[in-house]
């Protein structure tokens, strides 16, 4: 290969990689900026909620993105704050915004019968 061809091929490879990494960087920035918290929904036998415990600040609005990475439908609810996402289908992500107005420790849970261990698909949120 001639020197000029080598330079051209190198430039094309770098431009392609740059575009790919650029898209990932923008996506990461976008998610970090718009969502206070990202939750992964998994049935208990596949690891359960991740994170299963998290902390929020009283009076500060939060925007939670719940991502269902499984092949079954899940739901999401924090009954103490009247927060609910009725259905998050397989592979879907949905968000919910609310402001925790009281301190304490509260359960969050899946609201769709998703597995034999569905009743254990729970987590805990602390408001400080
Ligand atoms: Cu579930």
Q: What labels describe this entry?
A:
Immunoglobulin-like; binds copper (II) ion; alpha/beta; 25% helix; 8 strands; 3-stranded mixed sheet; elongated; 128 residues; 1 helix; 2 domains
Summarize the structure.
This protein has 128 residues and is α/β, with parallel strands linked by helices. It contains one helix and eight strands; from the N terminus they run H-E-E-E-E-E-E-E-E.
Q: What is the CATH superfamily of the largest domain? A: Cupredoxins -  blue copper proteins
N- and C-termini, Cα separation: 64 Å
Strand order of the largest sheet: 1-3-6
What class, by secondary structure content? alpha/beta
Any ligands, ions or cofactors bound here, and which? copper (II) ion
Helix-strand pattern, N to C? HEEEEEEEE
Q: Please give the largest β-sheet.
A: 3 strands, mixed
The helix tally amounts to 1
Q: What overall geometry do the principal axes of the alpha carbons give?
A: elongated
Helix share bin: 25-40%
DSSP E strands, number: 8
Q: What is the CA-based Rg, rounded? A: 20 Å
Using the coordinates above, name the CATH class of the largest domain: Mainly Beta
């Amino acid at each position: 290969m001639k020197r000029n061809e080598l330079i051209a091929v190198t430039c094309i490879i770098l431009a392609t990689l740059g575009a790919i990494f650029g898209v990932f960087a923008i996506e990461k920035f976008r998610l970090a900026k718009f969502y206070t918290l990202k939750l992964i929904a998994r049935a208990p036998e596949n690891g359960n909620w991740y994170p299963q415990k998290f902390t929020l600040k009283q009076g500060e609005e939060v925007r939670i993105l719940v991502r269902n990475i499984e092949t079954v439908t899940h739901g999401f609810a924090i009954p103490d704050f009247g927060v609910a996402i009725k259905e998050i289908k397989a592979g879907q992500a949905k968000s919910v915004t609310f402001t925790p107005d009281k301190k304490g420790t509260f359960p969050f849970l899946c609201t769709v019968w998703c597995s034999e261990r569905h009743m254990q698909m729970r987590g805990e949120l602390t408001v400080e």
